[in-house]
Design goal:
Length: 167
């Protein structure tokens, strides 16, 4: 279904559509993180990815909760945006030989993922509030908070150490 498909007639339809996309995205991220954990050399980065894998499982559970609160079946639909980000991440890491540079590349990829999620959750929260669903907004806000914290942590690891080692 395209973004401007005629099947989307209301903000409520659009909300569900985007919820299905972020559901797909979270599942793809859960599938990709183990590979990134395997590739990371820096122990703090590895541990950060491990923690985020655990959090991602919680994000999937929360998105399922929102489907339930909203009274629709949990269903994922393809999201080409996250596929592109993850594909590019895979290509770049395959091209990097040096370990420290690979860590820097992994952080860059992970932050692209986090920023994608941050924009999606921000929109979903605003729409949920507009639709009078503060219950859904509150659950989604927990995911947003963890994505933001992860993004900040990645910046910290990059700026304190990885970028220096990679340079
Ligand atoms: Fe997430």
């Amino acid at each position: 279904m395209g973004f401007f498909s005629k099947d989307i007639k209301s903000l409520d339809d659009l909300f569900i559509h985007m919820l299905r996309e972020i559901y797909y995205a979270e599942e793809q991220i859960e599938r990709t993180l183990p590979k990134m954990i395997g590739e990371a050399t820096d122990p703090q980065l590895k541990a950060g990815f491990e923690k985020h894998l655990e959090q991602t499982r919680g994000h999937i559970d929360r998105v399922e909760q929102v489907f339930e609160l909203h009274g629709v079946k949990a269903k994922a639909i393809n999201c080409p945006a996250i596929d592109g980000i993850l594909e590019e991440a895979d290509e770049v890491s395959g091209d990097v030989g040096d370990k420290e540079v690979l860590d820097a590349a992994l952080i860059a990829s992970a932050q692209a993922v986090e920023h994608y999620e941050i924009t999606r959750y921000g929109t979903l929260i605003a729409w949920a509030r507009q639709l009078g669903r503060s219950d859904c907004a509150n659950v989604l806000a927990k995911n947003l908070k963890e994505e933001q914290a992860t993004d900040r942590k990645l910046t910290e690891i990059a700026e304190n150490r990885i970028n220096l080692l990679a340079a």
